[in-house]
């Protein structure tokens, strides 16, 4: 059993507070989605975007595959066979699906990028099973291979799946080693948004190669996760895409010296 590693840090550890936050951020829209892109910062910064995006998905899938990034670069792409626990209880692993992926077993114990999505799934889709896929940061060269594996296993097992890519977008500031824009807060935010739009254009166009190429010089943390998800949902016959919401950490922190941006995108 994987115990929660970042409850009380990235999201509330109190079950009632956690559930209330999620239910209070739900979207009215419903789309027959095959995949989504959601952010993974602390809920105060990006939780609303993640909830609104996931809640816009029609609950017509049996298994959710969440592709997260291993920020610590601790090894190869991995999955889990043991169930996960959050303050809301236990979510069951789809062990048949996870085994068929033929990945290393055991995701990094302290990684938050997948864990922060799990309570949202538990509230919105209480009957689904779950498959975590954790990709090393920067290992986007194998994105197509991972996306293809997910598609092939879903096809082999006859599973209706939702594929989730967990990634924040631009990281701007000296602490991130990337300072490109200057001036007023509005000028800096416009520069960041322009950069994000260049990536999102590729994402919305299902341009896997373009996402990977952008990842060679961009600062989003999960280009591999995004590219793998887009490859999988394109193979699953998704043909439409839409940005549900966009925001930045500045909206909460008011600290323009360090800004991270977040987007929620649905594919159907």
Q: Topology, pairings included?
A:
Elements lengths: L14 H9 L11 E4 L4 H12 L8 E8 L7 E2 L4 E3 L2 E3 L3 H7 L2 E2 L12 H7 L4 E8 L6 H15 L3 E6 L4 E2 L12 H20 L3 H8 L7 H13 L5 E8 L1 H4 L5 E9 L1
Parallel strand pairs: 1-8, 2-7, 2-8, 3-6
Antiparallel strand pairs: 1-11, 4-5, 9-11, 10-11
Number of helices: 9
Considering the protein shown, what is the CATH homologous superfamily?
LigB-like
Task: Give the strand tally.
Answer: 11
Mean pLDDT: 96
Q: Report the portion of residues in β strands.
A: 15-25%
Number of structural units classed as domains: 1
What is the helix content? Answer: 25-40%
Find the CATH topology.
Protocatechuate 4,5-dioxygenase, Chain B
- Are there runs of 5+ residues with pLDDT below 50, and where? none
The chain-level structural class is alpha/beta
CATH class: Alpha Beta
Taking Cα atoms only, what radius of gyration do you get, to the nearest Å? 17 Å
Net shape: globular
User: Oligomeric state of the chains?
Assistant: single chain
Helices and strands, in N-to-C order?
A: HEHEEEEHEHEHEEHHHEHE
Q: Main β-sheet, in a few words?
A: 7 strands, mixed
CATH architecture: 3-Layer(aba) Sandwich
Cα end-to-end separation: 33 Å
Description:
With 268 residues, this protein is α/β, with parallel strands linked by helices. It has a single domain, classed as LigB-like (Protocatechuate 4,5-dioxygenase, Chain B, 3-Layer(aba) Sandwich). It contains nine helices and eleven strands. Strands 1, 2, 7, 8, 9, 10 and 11 form a seven-stranded mixed beta sheet that branches. A two-stranded parallel ribbon has the order 3-6. A two-stranded antiparallel ribbon has the order 4-5. A hairpin with a 2-residue loop joins strand 4 and strand 5. The longest helix has 20 residues. It is globular, with a radius of gyration of 17 Å.
């Amino acid at each position: 059993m994987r115990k929660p590693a970042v409850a009380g840090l990235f999201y509330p550890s109190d079950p009632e507070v956690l559930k209330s936050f999620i239910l209070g951020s739900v979207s009215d829209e419903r789309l027959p989605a095959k995949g989504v892109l959601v952010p993974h910062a602390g809920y105060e910064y990006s939780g609303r975007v993640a909830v609104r995006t996931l809640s816009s998905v029609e609950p017509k899938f049996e298994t959710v595959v969440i592709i997260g990034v291993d920020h610590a670069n601790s090894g190869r792409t991995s999955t889990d066979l043991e169930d996960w626990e959050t303050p809301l209880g236990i979510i069951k692993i789809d062990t048949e699906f996870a085994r068929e992926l033929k990945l290393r077993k055991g995701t990094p114990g302290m990684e938050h990028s997948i864990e922060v999505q799990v309570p949202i799934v538990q509230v919105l889709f209480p009957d689904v099973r779950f498959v975590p896929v954790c990709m090393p940061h920067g290992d986007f060269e194998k994105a197509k291979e991972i996306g293809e594996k997910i598609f092939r296993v879903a096809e082999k097992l006859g599973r209706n799946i939702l594929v989730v890519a967990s990634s924040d977008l631009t990281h701007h500031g000296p602490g991130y080693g990337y300072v490109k824009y200057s001036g007023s807060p509005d000028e800096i935010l416009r520069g960041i948004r322009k950069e994000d739009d260049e990536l999102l254009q590729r994402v919305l166009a299902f341009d896997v190669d373009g996402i990977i190429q952008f990842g060679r010089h961009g600062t989003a943390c999960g280009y591999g996760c995004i590219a793998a998800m887009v490859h999988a949902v394109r193979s699953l016959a998704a043909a439409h895409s839409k940005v549900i919401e966009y925001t930045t950490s500045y909206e909460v922190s008011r600290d323009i010296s360090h800004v991270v941006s977040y987007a929620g995108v649905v594919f159907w």
